[in-house]
Amino acid sequence: MSRTSAAAPRRRDLHPGSRAPGVVRRTPLLLLLWKAGVFVVGAAVVGTGIVLLPLPGPGWLVIFAGMAVWATEFTWAQFVLRWTRRKVAEVTRRALDPRVRRRNTVLAAIGLVLAAGAVGAYVWRFGVFML
Question: What is the pLDDT averaged over residues 41-62?
Fold first, then answer.
């Protein structure tokens, strides 16, 4: 039985939190390039999400996907994602509360009545013109 594998010294991983492959984590220049690439890809995804916000599409979902890309290498992005998950869970829990749902339903009904009244007043005052 050979003991070379047990006796061979293993190189210590200098950046254990990184998701980069081992050879990249052990080489400072490659690690810097890896992190720069992750940052650029994450920025592109977040930028796409920002562009999608006013357009019909999953803007927030794309932004969170870009944050998840950043979270693979950057601790600050992991903190932002954890905070966002906590806030989404809290808002979801509050939105499912029966009292809040009842209040939101009443407010939506009042808003619809006011909007219908405004449209009716406009039509009564100016009439309906078809171009």
Answer: 90
